[in-house]
Write a structure and sequence with these properties.
Layout lengths: L9 H12 L14 H8 L12 H4 L23 H4 L5 H4 L14 H4 L5 H4 L14 H10 L3 E3 L2 H5 L7 E3 L22 E17 L8 E9 L7 E2 L5 E9 L2 E9 L4 E19 L3 E4 L3 E2 L9 E4 L7 E9 L10 E2 L3 E7 L7 E8 L7 E4 L8 E9 L1
């Protein structure tokens, strides 16, 4: 006999359905989950859209959170000055040595010093120590009176004294006139330097421009890097060689002379690395050159070059020539006492030739000794020339 079906009322059915779905999630609770179709797509090889994501290669140069942990955030530096804000302020190095406010405590201001004498105002005024041992007016008057000498203030008082009376006139005396200075020695007649210059060039042309006028003479020293085939000089009209090309180490130097012109152009037979120095001389009838001394000659030199003294009267000029890759500036190159440095051709890049030109200020002939900042055992010579009146 077939089983009889169980019958439910509508109310009982609703309760049964409510109990069955109570443990299930609602639509809102499932909104963050993938649907079956989305899972199926992924399972079938579907890909996630990575358009808005960076690649590993793009992140390679960026810092990690750990690396940024010691840096300030934008908010922390918001009130700090930027580099642009600090451009008008001095750095520590720029204010080193400048007095602080505390250093000025106790010093007078400009307004406080306005009524006082300057150093120039009191120059020549006696110091208190200079007056030690001198009598005061009162002491002098007492001493004169003690020996029977009457002190009077005017000549009228002196006229009223009895004949034969001794008196001392205390009226202010006219200031003593300063002694006439002894005239100094007249300027020595003879040749003078009216212009000088120096320079460096890599090429075949040396251009020299010096102050002067017609009748002046130019003396030009040239120092070039030595080459297998030496670059020879093409002399302008009227020019002669004073010192033949002197080759020592890796350099070769020469001195030439000729008449002044607004622009002098010296042409070399081939490209060369050159340093040069020149002087324009007025009042010279002839130019003579002395003995050339190289560094290797006795006494051997390493940081100096000597131009031996040249006897006789006239304007003495000294040239020293050197070549070194060690850096040198004009301020580092000095001349011996009794000489004045006129010009210095400094190194220019790989053009290592230097030339020093000096004028003798000493009254008597003397060696010119030029001191350099670096040791150089071979490349260096010195020579003097004299412009005779």
């Amino acid at each position: 006999m077939a089983a009889r079906p169980t019958l439910y009322t509508k109310q009982g059915t609703d309760k049964a359905i409510a109990r069955a779905v109570a443990p299930l999630a609602t639509k809102s609770e499932l909104s963050g989950y993938a649907t079956k179709s989305e899972v199926a797509t992924a399972a079938a090889g579907g890909r996630v859209d990575l358009t808005d994501y960076a690649k590993k290669a793009e992140l390679r140069g960026l810092a990690t959170r750990e690396e940024l942990s010691g840096y300030a955030t934008t908010r922390q530096v918001a009130d700090l000055a930027t580099r642009a804000d600090l451009t008008a302020y001095a750095t520590k190095d720029e204010v080193a040595g400048i007095a602080k406010r505390s250093d000025l405590t106790g010093l007078a201001t400009k307004s406080e010093l306005s009524g006082y004498a300057t150093k120039g105002d009191v120059a020549g005024v006696a110091h208190a120590s200079d007056l030690t041992g001198l009598a005061t007016k009162a002491e002098l008057q007492a001493a004169l009176t003690g020996v029977g000498i009457t002190v009077v203030a005017t000549e009228a008082e002196a006229q009223r004294l009895p004949d034969g009376a001794l008196y001392f006139l205390a009226a202010a005396a006219s200031p003593a006139q300063p002694p006439t200075p002894t005239p100094g020695p007249a300027p020595a007649a003879g040749p003078t330097v009216v212009g000088h210059a120096s320079g460096s060039v890599v090429g075949q042309t040396i251009t020299v421009k010096l102050d002067g006028k017609a009748g002046d003479k130019i003396i030009l020293g040239i120092n070039e890097k030595a080459q297998g085939v030496r670059a020879t000089v093409s002399l302008p009209q009227g020019w002669t060689t004073l010192v033949d090309p002197y080759w020592v180490g890796t350099m070769s130097a020469t001195i030439i002379t000729g008449p002044w012109a607004p622009t002098i152009t010296i042409t070399m037979s081939q490209n060369a690395e050159i340093g040069w120095a020149a002087a324009a001389v007025r009042g010279a009838s002839r130019i003579e050159a002395g003995t050339v001394k190289k560094r290797q000659a006795e006494p051997i030199e390493t940081k100096t070059c000597t131009a031996p003294a040249l006897a006789g009267t006239g304007l003495a000029l000294g040239f020293t020539f050197e070549r070194t890759s060690a850096g040198e500036t004009s301020d580092q190159v000095t001349v011996s006492e009794g000489w004045e440095k006129l010009a210095f051709a400094a190194q220019d890049g790989l053009n290592y030739q230097t030339v020093t030109l000096a004028k003798r200020t000493a009254a008597a002939p003397a060696d010119l000794i030029v001191t350099y900042p670096n040791v150089q055992g071979s490349n260096g010579i010195g020579v003097q020339v004299v412009a005779r009146g």
